[in-house]
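Please describe our next protein:
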Amino acid sequence: MSEQEIPHVELSVDGLLKAAQDATGLHDFGDESFREPFEVLVKSLNEEANLNAVGRFTQYQRILNILCNRLRTEGWIARHPEILDEQITAPVVIIGLQRTGSTMFHRVLASDSRFYAPLWYEVRNPAPYMDWTPTQTDQRIVEGEAEVAAMLEANPELAAIHPMDPHAPDEDIMLLEHSFYSTVPDAFCNVPTYGKWNDTHDNTPGYEYLKRQLQSLQWQKKQKGQQAERWLLKTPHHLHHVATLLRVFPDAKIIQTHRDPLQTIPSAASMNYNLWIMCADEPDPKVVGEQWAAKYARGMLHTMQTRQSKPDAFIDVWYKDTVANPMVPAQAVYDFIGMTFTEEARAAMEKWREENKREARPSHEYTLEQFGFSEEGLKEQFAEYRAQYLR
């Protein structure tokens, strides 16, 4: 679609709410806590993000999609109130800076069928269409495949940064996005006012809504015949709010992945910059770098402080160990969470590794200077973390 063919859209609070209700025929958006961050985001997109026509349309569509999913979620719960009886027991949650091998480790562990894992098409569209049946083709899969293909066509560099697969386990931050308590908008656009709002407000409503979505997804998976023991989640976002996560999921087991921020932060900035350039003309890579380094520095200190009061909830996994042989840290994780590392699980993981080798994807190229970083600056910004965890 050329820029001339992109339809004009009204990026407004009232217009988006009405469009979602008109599209679904539903009216209950659920808990009202989403409204304030939603309004802050729309204002920030209009006033700060410098959106081009493509960016304005894609952000409109993304928010509309979120609102439609909220409406359908409540529609399904009204139809099947037993969804809220689903128990989310002792979820295993992988956290850590971006680019610490967490995606690979998540997908390796998720090969064990005893875990429920949220798939990309599910986190993107957690609520089925109201005519969904578990035995027929799921329209969310069709849409997910098309969206991933379009993203990779728009910016092929994304394939080198994050393995895009609509059928693979992916980050539950996209579930949190449906509460409007997430860093997803910051990843796509320059929305500093919205980012500051999230940083300075209690994110408990977002995590409570995440639990509601997991109950819904667990119910859906059971309708399709899947039976597992517990959830396996993953997103770097939890670094910023891990204390809140542990309040909402008090029996959660946290796997923290580690790698030197000198390698991870520039790579994370590159990933987000490659999203920004799809929504705005000539965004400043140094602004991307400044925002995300500061965000992760704060989040890491928060996690380190939280660990002091709940040390038994965490286990550490190092990037170099998962790259060398993920079966070794996997064994440690299974011991930590109290599950048997079965031969069936090991075989499934080895099969996934064989079918998903890193060299099958293009290399990811970037420099520190491109994003305004220096080795000395990053060492200072992450000094406490590097002193405690680098080995």
Summary: The longest strand covers residues 253-258. The chain has 19 helices and five strands. Strands lie at 92-96, 115-116, 230-234, 253-258, 314-318. The two ends are 49 Å apart (CA to CA).
